[in-house]
Structures are given as C-alpha cells and as structure tokens.
Amino acid sequence: MITGSSTVAPVVADVAKRYENTHPGTRIEVQSGGSSRGISDASTGVADIGMVSRALTDEEKQKLTAHLLAADGVCVIVHKDNPVKELNKGQLIDIYTKKVTNWNQVGGADATIVVANKAEGRSTLEIFVHFLGLDNADIKADVICGENLHVINSVVSNPNTIGYVSIGTASAEAGAGTPIKLIVTEGVTPTMESVRDGSFPITRPLNLVTDAETSPAARAFLDYLMSPEIHDLIEKHYFVPVR
Amino acid sequence: MSSLPQQRPRPVGSRWLDRIFAVTGAVAALLSVALFVSLLWDLVRLGLPELSWEFFTGEVEDAGRSGGIAPLLVSTLWILLCCLTLAIPLGTGCALWLSEFVRRGNALARLVTGGVDLLASVPSIVFGLFGMVFFAQTLGLGFSILSGGLTLACMILPILVRTTLTALESLPADLRPASAALGLSRTTTTAKVLLPAALPGIVVGITLGTGRALSETAALLFTSGYSTRLPESISDSGRALSVHIYDLALNVANGGAMASSSALVLLALILVVNSAAVALTGHWLRRRHATS
Amino acid sequence: MTSSRNTTLCRSVDRLVEAVLGLLALVSGGMVLLIVWHLLAGAWPAIAAGRLGAFFTDAKWQPGSLRDPQFGVVTMLVGSSLVTLLAVVIALPVGLATAIFHRFYAPAFLERWNRRMMELLIGVPAVVFGFWGLMIVVPAIVRVAPDMPGQSLLAGGIVLGLMILPVIALTSQAALQAVPTTLLHAAAGLGLGRARTIWSIALPTARGGITSGVLLALARAIGETMAVVLVCGNIPQIPTSLFDPIRPITSTIALEMGYATSSHKALLFCAGLVLVLFTALFVGWLSFRRNDTDPGTGGA
What we know:
With 243 residues, chain A is α/β, with parallel strands linked by helices. Chain A has helices at residues 9-22, 35-44, 58-63, 89-96, 123-132, 148-157, 167-175, 192-196, 216-226, 231-236; strands at residues 2-4, 49-52, 65-79, 86-87, 114-118, 143-145, 161-166, 180-182, 184-185, 203-210, 240-241.
C-alpha cells in the first residue's frame, strides 16, 4: 500500500503497473491523499511507502527515511502573448509583494499584473517563497490556486496573470500547445536539462518515505523504484530522474 | 405542455400577463439550453476524437493519457449499486415514516426532518473525510468500493428523502381516507396504493440522486480510492469515473483530452441509467394498470 | 389485497412496519450527528488548545506564516454565504421560469427533452463545471472588468448557479406536475387566464415542492467544493464588489487538507464544523418554518 502526494501518485501508479506485469503475484495499491497523508500513513504503518513531494523536516527525519525518486523544478509562467521573457529575483519579489503592479514596469504592456499564488502547505509555495527570501504573509496575491494545472489554466484564461508551477507540468502543457511561456529566471532557462544539471535555482525533491518496519516485498518494490529501469516512466511524467 | 382547456375571451390585461410569462419562460428555457451547450462544447471538441472501441474496453495506461477506462466503468457501476442499495430503502423508509406514520408537528419527526436537511448541507469534502474516518478506518472497510458506496449513500439520502416526501405529500387527499374506508391496513395502503401512485415522483428523486452520486469526486477520492485495477469484489479499491476525470484534469499534464472523453462517457452513463429507470417505471406502471 | 378479517394481525404488521420505518428514519436523521461527532473529534486538538476564539477574532487566514500566523474564519464564512446566495439568486428565477414554461406553454416533447437535459446536467462532475467556469466565464468577466483577476464572487456565483439550476428546475417541474388538473380546470372554468392561473393557483399549490427544491439546491451550493475552488480566486477577504475574489470555507478545506500538518488539520476540521453549524442555523430554521406552514396531506 502506497499513499501520499497526488503529484507523485500518477508516476508511482504507472511503475506499480509495470512491476506487477513483470512480477506476477504481486499486488500494489496506490492511493493519493496529499503529502501529509503519505507521511502519517508511513509513520503509522498504514502504508508501506509514502509519497511526499517535498523534503522531510527534521522532526520527520527521526522516524522516516527519505528516498529520492526524482527532482522537479519550479518555474514562473506567464501567458504566451505576454512580451516579458525574463524576470530576475528582485523583480519577482516586487511583483509578489505588490511593489510593482503593472506589466509595463517590467517590460511588458500596460496592464495590471494578476498575481497567482499557491495554497498554504504546498511544497511549490514553500520552495518559491524560500527562493525569494520572503514569508508566506508577505505575498500579496490576487488569486490562489491549488494544483499546477489550476495555475496554468488561470494564466490561459487571464493573460495578465503570473504564476509559478512545476517545470515538468509547464513544459508538457506548453509543448502540447497551451498558450503559456516559461520565464527565464536569474539567467537560467527552465528546462528539464537545467534542472538535471543543477543550474536551475528552484527545485524540489520528490521523495518516497519509509519507516523502520518495511516489509521485504515493499523494499523490493522500493529498489525497483530507485533503479534506472523506470527512468523512462519518470520522464514520461515530466520529472527528472536523479541517477 | 398546455394542460389548460381553451379560454373564453378575457380581459386584455390578462393576455399581456400571459405573453410576458410565455416570453420570460422561453428566454429562461433557452438560456438553460445555451449554458448546457456551452458546457458541453469543449467536452465534445476535445473528447469526441478520443472515443473508440479501445477506450471502452481497454485498461488504463500512462496515467490515463492513453488506453481505456473499462475497469473504471465497472468500479463506477459497483459503487453506484452499493450506494443505491443502501440509500433507496433508507430514504424511502424515512420519508414514508414521516409522511404516513407520524402526526403533524410531532417533535421527533421535526428532529428527523431537521437532521436530514442538515445532512444535505454537509460539504462534499467533509463527506469524504467522514467516509475515510468512519467507513474506511473505524469500520475497517479500507479503500474499497463499499466504503465509497456507503459514503455516497449518506450523501444522496437527503435528496431521496425530500423528493419522496414531496411526492407522497402531493398525492390526492382522498386516497388515504378512501383506502381506510375500504378497510385496508396502513401497511397495505402504503405498499399497494400510495407507493405506486407516488412512484413517478420517487423516480425523480432517484435520478437526481444517481446524477449526484455519479458526479461526486471529493467523497470518493478518500474512500473508494485511486486504483485503476479491475476490482474483483466490493472490498477492492476502484477508481470511479469522476475521480479519473478529476485526476486527468488537475494532476496529470496533458490529461485534458482524455478527461473530456471520460466526462462524455459519464454523461452517456447517466443517460442510460436514467432512461432505464424511467422505462422500467413506465413498464411496471402499465402492467399494474393492465392487470387491475 | 390483504383481507381485513384478521384485524389484530393487520395491526401487528402495521406496528412492525411502523417500527422498522421509524428506525430507518432515525438512522437517516441521526446520520448528521455522526458526521458532526467525527468533525468534533478531528477538531478537538484545536479546540483544546484554545484556538476557537482566534477563529472568530483573527482578521486573516494565514496559518502557514511563521511570522504572523492568523486563523480568522469570518471572511470565509462571508464568502461561502455570498456565493451561495448569488447562486440561488441566479438559479431560482431561471429554473422556476423554465419549469413553468415547460409545464404550461411548451409542447410535451420539449418538456421531455428539457428533463433529460437537466438530469444530465446534474450528473456533470464538479470539475467539468469548474473548468467551464475557468475557461469560459472568467475570460468573459476579464473582458468586462479588465483590471480585476477575473476569478471572483461573480464567477463562483455563475458556476454554482448553473450547477444547482437542474435541481431547482427538476423539483419545480415535478411540483408543478403534481398540481391536480381539477384545480387548473376549475380555474379556467372561473374565467382565469393561463398566466393568472399559474400565478394564483399553480404556484401556491406547488410551493411546498418548489421550496424543497430550493432547500436542496441551497444545501448543495453551500457544500460545493471542487467547482468553486477553480473559479472564485480563493483570497480570504470580504468582497467589496462582485468582481472581487473570495474564498468559501469549503475551498480552504479542499486546498489545504492534503498538505496540512496535524495542528493545521485540526483547524481545518474546525472550519468544517463551523460551516456545518452555520448552515444548520440557516437551513434548519428554514426547514422548521416550512414544516409549520406547509399545508400538505400527511400522516393521520
């Protein structure tokens, strides 16, 4: 039984299916419920493995071990028709604290910037906020979104919106024709490669957590998850394998 | 349908009112249709190309971006079955008790009605949490179709109770005294006279409830779960179609087209289930009239 | 047909049936208590820590802030109430007018098609409504109010309104259908025009059923989660215009539950409890009033 982050669940479900096909007789159940569910279920033993889309806190590290499944970057997106291509950290801080409120102040058209933030507790929020050196309370948002695809569709429906999402999701959607654009940050273009080689500054880990009492069957599956055999599945979900 | 017989010539004012009513009504009806078409437009545009025989019979692949939804259809139907099996007796029974077996203004009846109405306003996500804690954990059903079905039953219960109650209360006032005069017991009256007469109204409730159940996502995510495997029994986890649509739309990159096609299948499913309910009711009622 | 010769048996059967049905009714009515109990259990850690006061006095909702954590829920209560009210204000006239039209003015086959369409609309998952709102309603709002985010109270009200429209339309249609044709013919015989008959005879008679439908719709609207979270902007604030973003309590629970630490989770349970109790005051009061004034033909 594997529970946790809804970001990680699709890829782990795919891997589980492949594992079941190649190891007949095994039965793996993947459920979602959020990263904190992954942590609590793994701690209490309800789940053999937990899926968590962020790093563990020190308190969590005392009971659980994290195994890095993949890396994911967080990039800023705007609408494709927005002339702005690049924003540095200072500009982002100004935009997100509303010191700058019009696109023409950062090289765009004359329009009010609509700031999209993520909801409390999301790892993308925490990583982005950490990167900017701010506190949650400092951010003045116009719209708060939950999932990455919510942010993306918010940008599509209102072209003056700025938001931040997982690089993988953004690349996938942009590649399929969704009218969004990934913003170059601090001089680095957000792509899977720049996440892989570490040049992109905003990244988050996708972890699998176990506690001390994990069954051998679960350990075997965990090893499979850590192996290069499933890198193609990780990439199909637009995350970056780390080995 | 114009059920009123032809009118004699009447004052001009009344005709104006009639025109206003007709136009307002027509505009409202057209608006409903326009909104409905608008809603369906993108679904059809994105989803229709993906529909194929493989879609209906295949397994879920690549997190749902390719392959089919066959196991999900099975899970969804099983969840619906569990839900209705609990909700219909409970809801009809409650409504019957309130309508036939208690005095008006009875305190207990008021409490029960209040409780049912309150139940209707519990947020769907709270149902999900409740189902997860009560059915899945406390009752030990875990992630299963049964957990999901029972949670959904709680959720649509108020709809069934309310509509059945309305149907029973709208029955002609002379049915009950006439029945009593014939010497029929309360039970017989209820079972053989009232229920059949109220059946069309009750079926409206069931179709409302079914639609609600099939469209529910939050409550099922934590109860019947995420698994795309073909369920072997109702104690297995099975992903409902609505959960699949939610996952594809919000969690999986490039899942939009498949989400739309799944949604189209869900709508078709509702059409089928509702048409079946209406047809069965009509057939049954006709048989009764034929033999009596 | 049961012979009534053996009346004691009939009476015993009656009593048995009454008991069984009563039991079913008690289970139905008591279900909500079970849910409230579980909510309380989940919320207990927050209540025990004395957070409940802050719930109502804190101005903002930012539980994750390290510098200035605030847990005020009032803005979200207002958000929930406003968006629900807006939805009913939009859906009631349209739904009722549609039902009247189809019952009294339109040919029979149109009524059947309308009913099919409404039944379908009820089954559309909230996510689909949400996306429709985000991709179609929000850009339209942006065109009207270009400086506003677009995701707003108005967008939420429109999406919710469309979601509850079929409930109101279908229950109103059923209620109007149940108006005895004898009444309608009598009215015609008295010389009342069609519109007048509808206004003075049919509507009042159907009022009970229509109100039931509105209650159901209201309840659905206030509890709706998935659709509103996509279109109302989710900023916890009291709106000053229809174009301001708002956040209903349900959105908070949906957005934050999966990622909340245990103390945060208890707060979310608290929020859910507040919503249910708040709705209880309103819907319960409406329901009690309805039971008092409803003519009905029930029981004996």
